Amino acid sequence: MQRESDLQSALMETISFAGDGIATELIEHEELADCAATAIEREGEIILSYGTGAGYTPLRELIAGRYGVHPYRVILTNGWFQGLVMLTHRRARGRDAVIEYPTYGKALDQFFATGATVGYMDRIEGGLRLEELQYSLRTSQKKVSYIYTIPAFQNPTGTSLSAELRWEMFKLAMRFKTPLLEDDTFGLLRFEGDHVPTIFEMSAGESIYSSSFSYTVAPGLRVGYFILPDEHAREVAGIANGTYISPSLISQATIFEYIQRGSFDRHLGELRDRLRERRDALTEALVRHLPDTKWLMPEGGIFLMISLPPGSNGPAMLEAAEGVSALSGTDCGGSPNTLRLNFAEPALEEIEPGIERLAAALAAVA
Questions:
Q1: Mind listing the pLDDT tens digit for each residue in 280-290?
Q2: 29-263 in CATH: which number?
Q3: CATH superfamily name and code, 2-21+267-365
Q4: 315: buried, middle or exposed (CB in 10 Å: 19+, 13-18, 0-12)?
Q5: Single pTM value for the model
Q6: Residue 158, Ramachandran bin (φ over 0: left; ψ between -120 and 50: alpha; else beta)
């Protein structure tokens, strides 16, 4: 019987809430294939060759037009994360940085990798502890390189900052002459509630803005973008040229075609509806199977963070889990009794069975 049970466990397909991606069914494969073919037919001699480190010019110009800036300020990167790496390793090395906490684990790792001294501002239920930001800026022995924040549908908590908090952050950044780096990767994925202006919008373009097409189009295309002050833009473009010679112009041209033909805006509306459906399926499953957990309801994005009952050990629970995975809050700087759940990654019909398996794991280690 034990051998049969072990075999069943081995054959059980894992339902993942742990990753940073989205389900393949949320990607328009055929439309993107047609966009890529159209781009190659139109200008294959250009996009199949080397290009400037700053990225595919037509897409830079299109993004610049949407945000009301000069195209020179728009830098396309091979995924959002590579842009962050280039910025931090040039500007944050050996200096200070102030980062909200908990936060995106890979971003936190990059700031540590530069040798930066990291100050924290706690992400709390009501928003953000601005007094911690002010204290870090005031007491820094070195010039603070960046204030890093994910205002909308944050990874990992799924929460958003109010317009007032965003504006207060920007005012502090200006007061201490510190660049504010806004990660708006999930900002376009609002499926509920009223629009809140980005810090970039509020500041009339004075802050640093960044985003990605990984969640609105497809993660495998690896296209992120940054809107930077002239000096930063010139530096990042130079680092890109010296690091990988040329970006993937095919990917960037594919996204340009996808936007130009109207597919992006249409898909975005459909994607929001499907993400809301997944969010609702997840929260309903949590109510049924993990009723003692707590969470804040996200109005967009792809993440939700749950707090387990007092005394629970998230890492131990995940180690005991069979056929399901999630991310421990400790991987994002959160407490051991929290889990980050990505509701965009599993198929819709997998969500409830996945939560049932997490509930079984919690019961096993209780």
A1: 999 999 999 99
A2: 3.40.640.10
A3: Aspartate Aminotransferase, domain 1 (3.90.1150.10)
A4: middle
A5: 0.94
A6: left
